[in-house]
Specification:
The chain has 409 residues and is of the alpha+beta class.
Length: 409
Amino acid sequence: MNSKQIVLTGLVFTSLLTSLVLVDFLPVVVLAILFLVTGMLATAFIGLNHRRREQLDKAGSIIEASKALHLAESIADITAQLCIRLKITLNCESVFLWTKEAGAFAAEGLACWPGWDEMSEVIIEKGKPLIVNAGDKAVIPPDLPDNIKSFMGVALDTGKSDVLYLINSSKGNFEQHDLKLAQAIALQASRLIVRFQSLEEEKIFYHSLLESAIRANEASLPRFSGHAERVMAISILLGRELGLEEEEMQVLKYSALMHDIGQTAVQGEMLKEKSADTGEELRISAEDHPSLGADMLPDSGIFQDIRKGIKYHHERYDGSGYPDGLERTEIPFIARIIAVADVFDAMTMLCAEEEKLQCRQAIREIRKGSGSFFDPLVVVALTDLEEEIVMLFQDSSLDRKLEATAEGS
């Protein structure tokens, strides 16, 4: 209870007590005035309490909306939570987002009215929100459907042409306080969307930079051209089939893309530095490339898991692989997936022309190595994806398909 409420409460009780004490001494008119003042003060007190409760409810709604928005993991999640929270907070019947590229997100219902396009252009051009209520003859569109009695449009501040609409078909009109509440929640969503957009652009930039580095690496090894992208695409398909989480998929994607970056160091059997113990020069062999590739990355954060995917992609399920002879679950799951994708691409694309296998033949050969060379679970996933992989590799649009698969991750 704040100071104003305390003062009002004191006045109410003082007036009541005074009226009761002086009932036998004061004229009726004076008593009536005292009771009138008491009633007015009591009404003001109740009104202030009600307004305070409303303000607390609105603050609580904004806080709950803010929590939900900040827990979102993508722009689509933010948009969905924004619509849900506004619908709950303002108790309206429909909420949807209109974008310049796609129009209304909802395919049917109240969002079907074609006039949203024109209405959105007006809101964006003027840079002001719009409230249209039944009975507003001056602003209500003449072709507005009968089942839309009231609506409110608020532009999102995301640098794009996005307008949020809140609609009532039978409930009450929207008021200015509804608009302020909607704008407060929409502003938080806008800032989060801009942040996600910036992260996405940064991710695309670094991915493009990485792909350029991989292509430069493959340029010195012509027969490996496109190998990294193909292994990444197959690994992504396998990862999805095996139900990997989003973060695991990102580790798998970049581990697969960079799994052979150590090949540059072994090209032409380049010499390592002299041994610290014997002073002899040690030659690098092909089996060193996984460790060399892993050592090129920082040993921190997400890179730790990516390093493991790169370092152990030549380990074998029975322990016969390299560099450390790990077996079964000692081998990181990401590396077990890449191992299958790597061998599949080697059989179908990398080996000499006369030794190349068709996709189905390669899958049959890999099945023979299930439990010895390869994790049986990954082999089952590869088998289940046989038709999809055959479609992926069967025509000249392979590069575009691989790119689409990678983007879908």
